[in-house]
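S2.1 Query sequence (Mitochondrial coenzyme A transporter SLC25A42)
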Amino acid sequence: RAGQVDFQRQDVEPVISAHLPSEGTQEKKKVLNSLMSGALAGAVAKTAVAPLDRTKIMFQGKSCRLLQSSLEAYRLIYRTYLNEGFWSLWRGNSATMVRVIPYAAIQFCAHEEYKQLLGSYYGFQGKALTPFPRFIAGSLAGTTAAILTYPLDMVRARMAVTPKEMYSNIVHVFIRISREEGLKTLYRGFTPTILGVIPYAGLSFFTYETLKKLHADHSGKSQPSPPERLLFGACAGLIGQSASYPLDVVRRRMQTAGVMGHTYSSILLTMQEIIREEGLIRGLYKGLSMNWVKGPIAVGISFTTFDLMQILLRKLQHSTNVQR
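Output structure tokens follow.
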């Protein structure tokens, strides 16, 4: 009888294992889900705030004292609308999408992978990371995405601050910059970008993950609701962008220097010139009040979209496996 049971088990086990996805297949699906969710999250968030984003870049690129308050920034939006039309407020958004979709996909996917790696290293597999690894995972994810997609960010900045007659499309920007300023120009402002991404991505992911953990600990619910996710994401965006904003201004100045009549050779010299001409607060924090509106909205939408897409894709895969 025992032999008969063993025999039956041997027959049943291969059948069961044949229907269960292997670890490699599950990992591939997980990575693909993260990439798809991240791409959609970036696209939805950036399109929602594109007019404010374009104005912020124009605002940061000005070295004069005329644009010093958020009120003047919103006037700039209105003047752009009157002079160039409604859709001009989304000028450069195609370049933004070309950059943001791979950037967000890589960032969110990398964050999931770094969380898993750090969890294994620190012995937190299956559990929430402690604060320091949580910050490191976010910083590494942002740095990885920035390194791989930087030239696209440069192109988007150029399109945002120039009239449409100067650059007709994304390819035209690449060609003109390469011919007139050299290929190195595509990486101008790269160092302040990386220095800014480390606190920005680190603090953003850290804040969002921490708020979700605190919510789970105190509410007893495993998952926050969509409005709660939006709120947590907004807080993450506010903290992350405020911490890294001066480097964001420096990056934009260096990226747009070729078409704005300036030459900035290094981060420190750029900062010194901005402070000398415009002052510390009015120069390095120019447009920050607008970013306090734009940033939390964009980051809140981004994190929420990513989480909800992940949940949806997992449910779809689970129902498919059950049907099989």
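Residues 5-20, 64-68 have pLDDT under 50 and may be disordered. The first helix runs from residue 2 to 19.
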